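User: I'm preparing a small set of examples for a lab meeting where we compare how different chains pack in three dimensions. I only have the primary sequence for this one, and I'd like the structure in token form so I can line it up with the others. Please keep the answer compact; I'll paste it straight into my notes.
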Amino acid sequence: MNDFLLEYKNTITFSVEILASVTGLLLYKKYKSTDVKFFIWFLVYLTVCDTLGNYTEYIHDGGILNFLEGSIIDQSYCYWWYTTFWKIGAIMFFAFYYRKILEKKLFKKIIQICSYIFLTFSIIFIVLNWDDFFNKFFPAISVLGAVIIFLCTVFYFIEILQSEKILTFYKSINFYVSTAIFIWWLVVTPLVFYDIYMSNADWNFIFLRWQIYLFVNILMYSTFTFALIFCKPEKTVIN
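Assistant: Understood. Below is the structure token output for the 239-residue chain.
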């Protein structure tokens, strides 16, 4: 199992990720008049960013980015890249997206204010810890990002429970998106507190971490793919 993870974990994750984004593009016409179109472009964004995350392959052996060889970017484990595009970028997207799909102005306002506070905090925290930005993930950013996700999804679930949508919630793509990202952040966020074992080469923890990430990534992207195919477009909320 460990050998399998070592060799195929990235391939499997990228496969389910690109499946979700390609499905979204193929069904774009179905959702182009709804806010789901933003989510589809977000899936494409994730695929592109994950692909670019393998930039180290283009630095060595005469690659097109060989001028970066020996730099701090070359020596880092892509921490800076994934912190920027996922741990900050994805949070800001979901804050934007839920402000689109939520109906209660109070919920929208809370998410907007919290997301701006999160972004400001993240920028200041990175500037104050610039060297660590290239060498590890920041638990503070991860936890605050998870709080934003929980706010977004909980507000969405509250609106569902308080409206007639509860009768047809299983037909809504936003229900599946909310459930998937809630579970992903709930499972993954605690792992950032144990990243010290990554730096200490504790292979038992490393393989366990890979297994958890592989499972939740497959679950999340498979849910996105299913929802895009199964669900019908919903009426866009006027914001």
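A couple of notes for your slides: The two ends are 49 Å apart (CA to CA). Residues 194 and 216 are 18 Å apart (CA to CA).

User: Perfect, thanks.
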